[in-house]
Amino acid sequence: MGAVLAAVLGASLAGCSSTGGKRAEERASQQAAQGKAAVNTPRWTIGMVTHSGDGDSFWDIVQKGAEQAAAKDNIKFLYAHNDEGQQQAQLVDSYVDKKVDGLIVSLAKPDAMKAAVARATKAGIPVITVNSGTAESKEFGALTHIGQDETIAGEAVGEELGKRGRKKALCILHEQGNVGHEQRCAGAKKTFDGDMQNLYVDGTNMPDVQASIEAKLQSTKGIDAVVTLGAPFADAAVQAKEQAGSEAEIDTFDLNAKVVTALKDDTLGFAVDQQPYLQGYQAVDLLWLYKYNDNVLGGGKPVLTGPQIITKKDAPALEAYTKRGTR
After folding, report:
1. Is the pTM of this model over 0.70?
2. Concatenated DSSP letters for 247-261?
3. What separation, in Å, do the N-terminal and C-terminal C-alpha atoms of the chain show?
C-alpha cells in the first residue's frame, strides 16, 4: 500500500493529475522504471546499514529494492554493511554524523545496536528496522519494523516438515549470535512433531559448512530433513547430502535463482520466502511517506513480508523474478 500511495502522491506532486489518475500512475511507474524521480519533494538522504556479510545475495535483493524506491522518491540512498555488531553500530554512527534524513537498520545483534539507534532517534532521525529485530524495534524507538516474524516463520517450517512426514530434522545456523536465526530454529522445533537438532557452522567458510553437515549426516542416523537458514547454504547442504549418501530432504529459508531451479527438479523440498526486495523497497518508501506526509504503517505492529512456503508448483512463476534479482 505504501508503494502505491507513494506513486499516486508523487504523480500529483509532479503536476500530472490533470491527465487522469490512470495516466498519472502510468507516468510515475515509467519514470521509476527509468530511474527517474516520480515526485518533486526535496532530495532527502536515507542511509541503510545492515548486518550483511560480503557477497550475501539476500542483501543484494534488499538493496536493489531500496535503490529502486529511492530513484522513484527522489532520495539519495546510502548503503553500508558489516556482519559484526560493533562495526555495524559504528556505521550507523557515521550516518548520524552525516545528518541523514532517515535511517534503515537491521537488528540481528540488537544489544550491539541499541546505543547507536538511540543516538539516531535522539538526533531526530526517523528509523525503520528491517529483517531482524521484530521484538526490539519498538523498544529502540523505530517507527516500524518491516520483515517476517522469525518465530512465526520457524513455526511454519515445523508444520511443513510435519505435513511431509519428516521425523528427524537438522537446523543449520550459519551465524552465531544472530537472534533471528535462533528464533527460526526454535519456532520450527516448537511445531515439529519429530526431533529437531541445531547444528552451528561457520557461514563465512562454505567448504566448512558442507563438511560439517556431511559429518553430521554420517554420524547421526535417521536424519530425514535438513533446513538451512539462507539460500546460499542450501546448495552446500545438497552437496553434503550426496557425499554422505543420505536420503534427507533439503529445505531452506529464502529464495534465489539456484533455489528455484532446485525446487523445480526436486533437489529441494521447499523454501521460505520473506520477500527481501519488499523489505528494502517499503523501508525507503515508508520513510519518504513519513517525511512527506507523517504516515506510519503497522499501528505499532510489524509490517510482515513473510513467511510464504514456496514449493515445486510455485517455482515456475517466480523464475523470471529470481533471475533478475528481485525475488
Report:
1. yes
2. -PEEEEES--HHHHH
3. 19
